[in-house]
């Protein structure tokens, strides 16, 4: 399949959002990525979905090819507004058949899509979130010491070549769990060439760390106002996102649960065909 058509559209805070039109026909489907990743990671899923949907994906601020303007924070309301800007731009471009607009969100992307719908009801008719980061807001407890945040800040940003990145990431957890195609897409589109002939992460370690730090967006407390159908997938890895996914389904019986006991938080990038099939079933079934 040929590369998707790349577009840029204005969001808030001076952000120019890069997004990708994969083509296809049917209702509009917007793919929203996880923290530290980018829209092209989900190319394998997109290629399986274009028979039933007009598929687009995006890079939220400070991720992929979408730059972070100087002086702005990475609060997740901004991510939601990037999602909403792409939905509006795709509709204005005549993408989709006008019957419905659907969202798929992985981790942060699930929260961003949900927040976009809460801010502007009617943005999405249905959302499928794979372990959306929708946690209860803590009582002022600092999260700067989180191992996830510390790990992001320690992430190595520069490598000699894409081949070196691919070899290193493919040999270490958790990236070694990814489907080879998804790993290749992450590496190919997640690094940029530098003036000295090397390559560097497009999502800077400090930006990834701040994105994690800003992860409490107040969405949990607003779920009662959500009008869109909501499917929530959770893995069996026992980590916090999986546990909150189960809790959300228990607390909201009208949400549709999709358990994947054999997968991890990276499920959509581990088995893209399986997740695409369940996404199609939820949205169209």
What does this structure look like?
- This protein has 285 residues and is of the alpha/beta class.
- The chain has a single domain (5-284), classed as Rossmann fold (3-Layer(aba) Sandwich), CATH 3.40.50.1820.
- It contains 10 helices and 11 strands.
- The chain has helices spanning 43-49, 76-92, 108-119, 147-153, 162-170, 180-190, 205-213, 240-251, 267-270, 272-284, and strands at residues 5-10, 16-23, 28-32, 54-59, 101-106, 126-130, 158-159, 191-193, 199-201, 229-235, 256-260.
- An 8-stranded mixed β-sheet has the order 1-2-4-3-5-6-10-11, with helices on both faces.
- β8 (191-193) and β9 (199-201) form a beta hairpin.
- α4 (147-153) packs antiparallel against α7 (205-213).
- It is globular, with a radius of gyration of 17 Å.
- The two termini are 27 Å apart.
- The mean pLDDT is 96.
Uncertain spans? none
Q: CATH superfamily, called what?
A: Alpha/Beta hydrolase fold, catalytic domain
At the first level of CATH, what is the class? Alpha Beta
For the biggest sheet, the summary is: 8 strands, mixed
Task: Please state how the strands of the largest beta sheet are arranged side by side.
Answer: 1-2-4-3-5-6-10-11
Distance between the termini: 27 Å
Estimated radius of gyration: 17 Å
Oligomer: single chain
Number of domains: 1
């Amino acid at each position: 399949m040929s590369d998707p058509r790349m577009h840029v559209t204005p969001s808030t805070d001076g952000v120019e959002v890069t997004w990708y039109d994969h083509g296809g026909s049917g209702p509009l489907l917007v793919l929203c990525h996880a923290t530290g990743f980018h829209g092209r990671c989900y190319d394998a899923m997109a290629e399986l979905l274009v028979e039933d949907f007009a598929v687009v994906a995006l890079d939220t601020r400070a991720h992929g090819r979408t730059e972070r303007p100087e002086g702005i924070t990475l609060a997740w309301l901004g991510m939601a507004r990037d999602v909403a800007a792409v939905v509006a731009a795709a509709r204005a471009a005549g993408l989709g058949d006008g019957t419905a607009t659907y969202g798929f969100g992985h981790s942060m992307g699930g929260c961003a899509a949900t927040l976009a719908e809460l801010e502007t009801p009617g943005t999405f008719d249905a959302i499928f979130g794979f372990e959306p980061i929708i946690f209860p807001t803590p009582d002022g407890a600092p999260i700067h010491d989180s191992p996830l945040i510390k790990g992001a800040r320690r992430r190595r940003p520069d490598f000699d070549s894409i081949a070196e990145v691919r070899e290193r990431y493919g040999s270490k957890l958790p990236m070694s769990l990814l489907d080879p195609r998804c790993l290749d897409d992450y590496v190919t589109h997640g690094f940029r060439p530098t003036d000295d002939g090397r390559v560097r992460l497009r999502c800077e370690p400090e930006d990834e760390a701040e994105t994690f730090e800003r992860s409490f967006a107040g969405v949990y407390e607003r779920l009662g106002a959500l009008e869109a159908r909501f499917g929530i997938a959770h893995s069996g890895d026992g980590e916090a996102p999986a546990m909150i996914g189960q809790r959300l389904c228990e607390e909201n019986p009208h949400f549709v649960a999709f358990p994947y006991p054999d997968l991890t938080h990276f499920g959509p990038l581990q088995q893209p065909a399986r997740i695409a099939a369940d996404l199609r079933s939820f949205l169209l079934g």
